[in-house]
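Take one record.
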Amino acid sequence: MLFRKLCFIFVACNFVFSGYVQSEEVERGKLLYENHCGACHTTEVHKRGNRKVNSLVDLSRMVIRWQYHLKLGWNFDEVSQVMHYLNQRYYQIDQRP
């Protein structure tokens, strides 16, 4: 449990304070998402009216939660890449601190 909290804090800080996102990072996040999440998640999950992601913290929680639930074992970079992809593709949450 402590590891998950520390992981969340690290990823959230990494995501919030990374101003410039390399296109390679977003592309890697897209590949990870499509390979591991796309089978169950359609675009409607991210565009529904009662959206569960309204902030970067919410987004980090969801990515960490689901990668943990699916036992993917993603490292910090992989979680961050998926978060960047989802934010760029669906959420467009402001990344400035």
User: Anything to note?
Assistant: Residues 2-17 form the longest helix (16 residues). Residues 2-17+24-44+52-91 form one domain. DSSP finds five helices and no strands in the chain. The chain has one domain: 2-17+24-44+52-91.
